[in-house]
Write a structure and sequence with these properties.
- By secondary structure, this protein is an alpha/beta fold.
- The chain has 9 helices and 5 strands.
- The longest helix is centred in the middle third of the chain and has 14 residues.
- The radius of gyration is 16 Å and the shape is globular.
Length: 186
């Protein structure tokens, strides 16, 4: 019963958008070319123990968010703490923490959770400081913890999307150094 309560507490702490998302309710048939072995390898959470990252790229509606949350759920089952945030929510929380004087503690918390899932980069217009904030998070987490980032935009568009090509280059350099890329969709 104690372990069940711990799992339930970790699921609540993760704040998944859809808490019922699992790999067993994902339809792989709509995209036969998706790298299933990579998905199931990530679901073992071995990449978290190795402090590796993952990028899920593809157009809207191809299952990136579902897979990211399902991998987060699998990581919780294996004893890891997970935090799920949509990009705009994450950046809003950082802005709020900056205003109320708790930014340092908030960034420390973001940089120490074993798996941070940043979902939907590119779905909404982001603040001018987005590139700097995301770069800081990625740099703090680099080779210490794991990050899964989903985006409906190709990485070539991120410089224009975030307004800072140099920061995006540095961020991608770290994410891809020990990273896995899953292409969703055509």
């Amino acid at each position: 019963r104690r372990s069940d309560r711990l799992l339930e507490r970790r699921r609540k702490e993760a704040q998944f958008r859809d808490p019922h998302t699992r790999l067993d309710n994902f339809d792989f048939n709509f995209n036969k070319k998706m790298n299933r072995s990579l998905v199931f390898d990530l679901a073992t959470a071995a990449f978290i123990a190795k402090h590796e990252d993952a990028l899920f790229l593809g157009p809207p509606g191809t299952g990136k968010s579902h897979l990211a949350q399902a991998i987060g759920q699998a990581a919780i089952q294996q004893g890891f703490r997970v935090l799920y945030r949509e990009t705009h929510t994450l950046l809003g929380e950082i802005a709020d923490a900056t205003l109320d004087g708790t930014r340092k503690q908030h960034m420390e918390w973001l940089s120490t959770v074993p798996l941070l899932i940043i979902d939907d980069l590119g779905m909404r217009k982001l603040p001018p400081t987005a590139a700097e904030e995301l770069l800081e998070i990625v740099m703090r987490r680099y080779e210490r913890t794991s990050t899964v980032l989903t985006s409906n935009r190709p990485v070539e568009d991120w410089g224009k999307l975030l307004g800072d090509a140099a920061a995006v280059t540095a961020m991608l350099d770290r994410l891809l150094h020990h990273g896995h890329v899953l292409k969703c969709g055509p």
